[in-house]
Amino acid sequence: MEPTITVYCKNTHTYHEVPRGISLIELKDKIGVQLRYPIIAAHVNYKVENLDFLLYKPKDVEFLDASSPSGMRCYVRTLNMILACAINELYPRADLRIEHPISKGYYCTLQWRMPKNGDLNAEAGEPVLTPEMVDAIKNRMWGIIHENRPIHEEEKQTKEVIKMFGARADGESTIFETLGNPYCRYFRMGDYIDYYTSSTMPSTGYVNIFDLEPYHDGMLLRIPNRANPDRLEDKLVQDNMFQIFSEFSYWNKLLHIHNVSDFNIACKNNRSFELIKLAEALHEKKVAQIADQIAEKQPKLIFIAGPSSSGKTTFSKRLQIQLLVNGIRPVVISMDDYFVNREDTPRDENGDWDFENVEAVDLPFFRQQMHDLLDGKEVDLPTFSFEKGARQFEGHKLKLEKNNVLVIEGLHALNPIILPDVARSLTFKIYVSALTTINIDNHNWIPTTDIRLLRRIVRDYKYRGYSARETIARSPSVRRGEDKWIYPFQEEADVMFNSALLFELAVLKRHAEPILQEVPKYCEEYTEAHRLIKFLQYFIPIPEKEIPPTSLLREFVGGSSFHY
Length: 564
Description:
The protein is of the alpha/beta class. It is built from 15 helices and 21 strands. The chain folds into 3 domains: 4-65, Beta-grasp domain (Ubiquitin-like (UB roll)), CATH 3.10.20; 71-222, Threonyl-tRNA Synthetase, Chain A, domain 2 (2-Layer Sandwich), CATH 3.30.980; 239-557, Rossmann fold, CATH 3.40.50. α8 (272-297) crosses α9 and α11 crosses α13 (504-516). 41% of the residues are buried.
């Protein structure tokens, strides 16, 4: 009799006795699972697995489509491999670099290798990435998709994988050298091999929606909408954000830090303290430049906004110091102190308190106090007690003097609705976010949301008594609020400040790993905890003793000289 195992399907809430060694795709067909969109991957005991994954022991299985976060990541990784393979076939001397997410897609560039024989002819030069080339790449991608090429997940000894990838034209293999694992996994599509941080779909035919178009001096890989993956994401104009990414990419090149492998090697060579000092100096220089711009414009109101855990609070405090250097006395007001009382707070679609909603702020009262201050009147500033869920007054009186400027900090500070009748010429708007400065390698980027989530996990655990499981559970609601109330207004900013630090993930690793390991393996949040633990393995941990007490990172890991 053929040996069997018991599998529980979370989609259908049913148990099934199936042959031992059955693949996920065979299980899907046997059960007849149907989702709203095509099934492309699965959670097996809350870990993401390819549909070719074989089941040998009893498992809980949840099939995924592209509307789930794990499913969309799997879709995008597969799309990236198709893009990389198409470029390899069309332009074998070009290396694809997936730089960063932008405009609801991914900004990509091509780097051209010099021919090994040193000959420089027309073909061997450095051609511009023309619209015709982008069209050719897109057409080759569709060709690969229509061929429905299988994608195989393989594993070998690390020394063998290093040889295989070192033999490729780009010679990129250092990521394997710095991981320290005896075996490494990689992906094969025919003769083409590549590395990705997690699973892909079983074959190229699963991809049915994407676009590729010229974007600045590179191209934009457009992906399906995350909520409705049967259509493309709407492209956003994010020219200011693109300039910030470009600036930090330029600085990284000067430091010879192009990816995590470069960073790890630098740390092994005792350069971590140097990198910390340079990154902190760059932050300080940017804050000083912003203060100089404010001094030149002389606004009455400075607005500082950004998503959760972007470091707005520490940035505001450092900006205050630089404004004082310019003879400006800032008065900081947090929009959090203008929250409505808890019983009046709006709720989200799940019935939970929706603190990201702009209606969670008492806008009429906020507007009245801001206008009174601008008119030279004295006001009694509120303080919001999060423990009591109520506004209270503790005698904080304020009247603006001649050299004062109001600094308003909060999630909604860039939203024109908060003070619609104040002239734009009287305002200066700053957007703060942790925009990733390096990638894992040429084809694996670091999401900005992961940096902020790790910051929030560490901070909430240390200072707010929340477990990683609780913070992760709250994360989808936070992201929905950011998508609705923050990101649409980021290009309203006069300047953007990148709060990410080149070294911070190597420091957060020490703090985050033990917190993430507390997440039980039997809950939904374990999927995200496991993914983040795997993600942190790419970084060599470094000590934080050289991080100055005014560093923005101190807001999350402790040791700040600022009072919060």
